[in-house]
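To the wet lab folks,

You asked to see what we're planning to order before we commit. Fair enough. Below is the target structure as tokens, and below that is the sequence we designed to fit it. If anything looks off to you, flag it before the synthesis order goes out.
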């Protein structure tokens, strides 16, 4: 929601200042300039991106525009879920976790935390981390290395859309100049039509430069930064899972493993320690 508010502020302040200076907004509505700048920018995007990255960019932009970063309540639910899973493994043996890990959608534990369950990638990361623990195919000290490698691969993949968006943002001012030069070429071709007509063509050409810079620094580059923040939030969620699971695999008590994971979080999303401890103790008595 904030990103839409920011976009409104950018547009309103630009048009407002232009109108206060005596400008007419319709002068900026040069369809040919929009076609050149928009078309070339999309072409740059397509040339620079493999097919799977294009899909990833669409997904990330949708997430930036309409999605929501994981907040304190989301992490609170995650930590309570982890505690329940660990306690089940501690009380009933690791084999008791198999039914929950193999089909989390049908798991009574996972179903109590829909905020976690609705994110397939997060659940998959958690379950893939627990499976080697249940199977006993890996030493506890090796599990963290395995999960770190997976987390690093996911982080690298998530940065591809950021790099492409930054490329488009860096290219847009230059694309605006191309549109302006095309406009000047048209101006030179119509110079015999008189000063008024030449003035109109020059104004249209300058609009191309304006749009390239405006879209680059007003929208595309900030959008790339927002996607990067969203990536960092998602990485923190997965890292919290990794910290807790690795601690549990090494033999830490469920509450201790969860507390270490809680302390690894940024203060903006970190649940209160006393409140979380009280909540998980209530779970333990059920």
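Sequence we intend to order:
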């Amino acid at each position: 929601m904030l990103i839409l508010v920011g976009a409104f502020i950018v547009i309103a302040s630009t048009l407002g200042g232009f109108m206060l200076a005596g400008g007419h907004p319709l002068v900026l509505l040069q369809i040919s300039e929009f076609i050149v700048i928009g078309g070339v920018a999309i072409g740059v995007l397509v040339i620079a991106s493999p097919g799977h990255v294009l899909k990833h960019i669409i997904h990330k932009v949708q997430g930036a525009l309409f999605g929501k970063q994981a907040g304190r309540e989301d992490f609170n639910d995650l930590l309570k879920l982890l505690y329940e899973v660990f306690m089940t493994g501690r009380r009933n043996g690791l084999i008791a976790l198999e039914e929950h890990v193999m089909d989390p959608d049908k798991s009574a534990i996972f179903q109590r935390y829909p905020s976690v369950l609705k994110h397939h990638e997060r659940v998959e990361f958690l379950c893939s981390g627990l499976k080697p623990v249940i199977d006993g195919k890996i030493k506890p000290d090796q599990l963290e290395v395995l999960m770190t490698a997976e987390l690093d691969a996911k982080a690298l993949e998530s940065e591809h859309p950021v790099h492409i968006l930054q490329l488009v943002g860096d290219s847009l001012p230059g694309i605006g100049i191309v549109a302006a030069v095309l406009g000047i070429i048209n101006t030179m071709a119509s110079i015999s039509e008189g000063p008024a007509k030449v003035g109109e063509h020059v104004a249209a050409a300058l609009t191309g430069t304006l749009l390239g810079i405006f879209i680059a620094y007003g929208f595309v580059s900030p959008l790339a930064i927002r996607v990067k923040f969203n990536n960092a939030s998602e990485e923190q969620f997965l890292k919290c899972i990794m910290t807790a699971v690795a601690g549990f695999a090494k033999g830490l008590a469920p509450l201790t493993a969860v507390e270490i994971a809680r302390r690894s979080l940024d203060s903006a999303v970190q649940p209160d320690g006393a409140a979380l401890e009280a909540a998980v103790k209530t779970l333990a008595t059920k």
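Structural context that might help your review: The chain has one domain: 30-284. Residues 195-249 form the longest helix (55 residues).

Thanks,
Computational group
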